[in-house]
Design brief:
Blueprint lengths: L6 H5 L1 H4 L16 H9 L10 H9 L10 H5 L13 H6 L9 E3 L2 E3 L7 H17 L11 H15 L3 H10 L4 H15 L7 H8 L4 H13 L6 H18 L4 H6 L3 H5 L8 H8 L5 H6 L18 H6 L5 H11 L8 H7 L1 H14 L2
Antiparallel strand pairs: 1-2
Amino acid sequence: MLAPRSLEESASPQARAPEISDLGRPPVHRFTTAARICLGHRGITCAGDDGHEARRHILRGPGSDPTRRTRRQRNGPHREYGRSTRSSGASRARSRPRRPRSRRRWPGGRCACTTRSPSMTIREADKANRVAGALLGLMPNIGGPRSSRCRLYASVVDSILLYGAPAWSEAAKTHNYVRRAASIHRRACLRVICGFCSILHEASYVLASIPPLELLINERSRLYHRRLENVGSEERGRTIEKWQAQWARSTKGRWTHRLIPNIIAWIEKRHGEVNYHLTQLLTGHGCFRSYLCRTNNDTSDRCPACSLAVEDAEHVIFHCPRFAEEIGVLHRLSRGLLEPETLEGFMLDAKPNWLEVSSFERARRR
């Protein structure tokens, strides 16, 4: 076997051409000037063992011991997760592989976050907020798509908000993680009904025919636990029952509750679209002097035709003499006296009735 050559001999032009006797030798490592200086400070020559020992010193770094063994050489064969087989009893107890973090499943994927972490809800709420902002340009209050089409757009926002709801539904009961998501949900409902931002949550949900977000979260959780059964309509019925009970107990949106006391009949209507003008009549938030005075946009809440009466939605559609002709048409269609408690049944009875109430509010604005 040929003797190993030094670094200078290997770097010479004559030594670069491979010889027939050197074809069976391992490749000689070439070192740069910086490598030679580093090895010279350590007192190591580049010759011998074909430069492999010098290369190991460079990789180990300064201050390394050439005789030092690696941890694998000292401890012998390793178990899985990098634990030595020659450890004590306490070490063996610690060397047991860790159990993977529990993952909660829901239809459509996995959730790596626990029920205590709000990161999932916050991340999805941010995404839904961006989507809702992008949809605002598609749903203007005047001249936009009809409410049924806007409800389809709002379902996209709800799908993002409810993603993985069975995983964090328990945390939503005791924490305020869903407060931001509920505000985005309400924002989408306001776009469906083309209403003012001052409309209360309860009234906006009823007019948009979309349940509150808390009830939708509970419904998704129940559907997941009963995913092997065909109980979609049953669980939606339970959600509507709870929604109806909340609507009856609530102290907010009472004018809308007088007009629409029955949620089931409203959301199952077969005709009629809510628009910008009709929403003002059904909520009382619009071009009424009582509302304008409450929002500091008018100096008086009195009706210009009836100096002693407050001009609100009830006074305009049922009692104001300025609109006696339009009120008479509504009374003839209803075949009797029309009151706030009977307005919902009158509108849902026939499509012409719905259109007449909607055109009444539009004619009042002229």
